[in-house]
Recover the amino acids of this structure.
């Protein structure tokens, strides 16, 4: 039973357009959410996070939105660049435990 | 700063062989983790260590053992490898929520 779901295995976007990656969770105890980016043959790298006390967090071209009532978060990349092509993992953790539960990932391809 | 290092990068084992995957971090993090990544399955936690001297099972611990040798090092041992353990293994460390990952070990068990 997946507690963190990324329902789109892949996403294709044109360079310069917006990429929107989605993530749903079922555990209402989750209160901290993270996005990781992974290139082939490398380990994941932390991208951006958000606490449940916020509904938006922005870092340059990357913005994460959290909708607690819908148990949904999304990562927006604007504008998308070919170097953003990677697998993106959503992760969630509950208060007091720093151990995240990961989604299965979404493969983003940004076409030049 | 090397961050998180893992050895070896690649390994091929025969069924029943044993091996130890090594992981070290130089960021003075208390927590360390071992994950496996399989196609379409995301990252699944095998074992973790919240601090030096403690280890706990994650989601998929069967067939593995771990040792937190000191604050820097966290090793993963396969006592009797099985084809189902063919995977990419990632070690990570964290100060709190954000995890820092190593480059991975690609293990094939034939």
């Amino acid at each position: 039973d997946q507690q963190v779901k990324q329902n789109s295995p892949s996403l294709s976007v044109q360079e310069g357009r917006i990429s929107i990656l989605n993530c749903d969770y079922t555990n209402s105890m989750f209160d901290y959410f993270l996005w990781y980016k992974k290139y082939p043959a490398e380990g994941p790298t932390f991208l951006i996070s958000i606490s449940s006390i916020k509904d938006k967090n922005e870092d340059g071209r990357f913005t994460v939105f959290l909708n607690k009532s819908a148990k949904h978060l999304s990562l927006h990349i604007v504008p998308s660049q070919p170097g953003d092509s990677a697998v993106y993992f959503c992760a969630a953790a509950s208060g007091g435990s720093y151990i995240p539960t990961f989604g299965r990932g979404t493969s983003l391809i940004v076409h030049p | 700063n090397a961050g998180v290092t893992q050895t070896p990068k690649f390994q091929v084992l025969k069924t029943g062989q044993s091996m130890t995957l090594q992981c070290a971090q130089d960021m003075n993090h208390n927590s360390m983790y071992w994950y496996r990544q399989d196609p379409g399955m995301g990252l699944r936690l095998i074992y973790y260590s919240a601090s030096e001297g403690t280890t706990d099972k994650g989601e998929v611990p069967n067939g593995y053992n771990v040792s937190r040798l000191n604050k820097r090092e966290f090793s993963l041992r396969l006592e009797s490898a099985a084809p189902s353990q063919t995977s990419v293994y990632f070690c990570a460390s964290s100060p709190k929520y954000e995890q820092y990952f190593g480059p991975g070990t690609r293990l094939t068990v034939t």
Summary: The radius of gyration of chain B is 13 Å.
